Amino acid sequence: xxxxxxxxxxxxxxxxxxxxxxxxxxxxxxxxxxxxxxxxxxxxxxxxxxxxxxxxxxxxxxxxxxxxxxxxxxxxxxxxxxxxxxxxxxxxxxxxxxxxxxxxxxxxxxxxxxxxxxxxxxxxxxxxxxxxxxxxxxxxxxxxxxxxxxxxxxxxxxxxxxxxxxxxxxxxxxxxxxxxxxxxxxxxxxxxxxxxxxxx
Length: 200
What we know:
It is built from five helices and nine strands. By secondary structure, the chain is α/β, with parallel strands linked by helices. The protein has one domain (7-199): Spore Coat Polysaccharide Biosynthesis Protein SpsA, Chain A (Alpha-Beta Complex), CATH 3.90.550.10. Strands 1, 2, 3, 4, 5, 6, 7, 8 and 9 form a nine-stranded mixed beta sheet that branches. Strand 2, helix 2 (49-61) and strand 3 form a beta-alpha-beta unit. The longest helix is centred in the N-terminal third of the chain and has 13 residues, at 49-61. The two termini are 31 Å apart.
């Protein structure tokens, strides 16, 4: 039986091959019976119709909602996140995001839901494991954040850390991860030492 929950997870995508792996990690069979509200938002700027259809096929296969947003340019999925966070009605009370090449840790969703329920309408900063990537420049896996710093600073936090209440007036601008977090609730966050996903 799939148990209901209160977390929406937004995945911006250009249809990379890793999207299916990401969606699979969110299936109830991998999350202790809990199924997230998953929203896949396609960056359709200069996207081929065949790619759109491929994304739609995957969203149907994995019971996710499909949304399109063409911002007139591509920018690491930030325009798509801005569109969903601000304009797309969600059933969930909390929302977070994950890259289409990343995965949620198996069985972590029930733990997240329990933590969120203890402090309603709060902003939560979980941890993620960042694996080596030429885009980030890290040569070894790192955990963001860590106990050396609980400040919202560039390269010390990432968008996948953050679970926010789905209240439009509290939404920052997704210019990038850092700007969104700095605008949001004046840094009043609850820091949670729990790794929720792996970022590749």
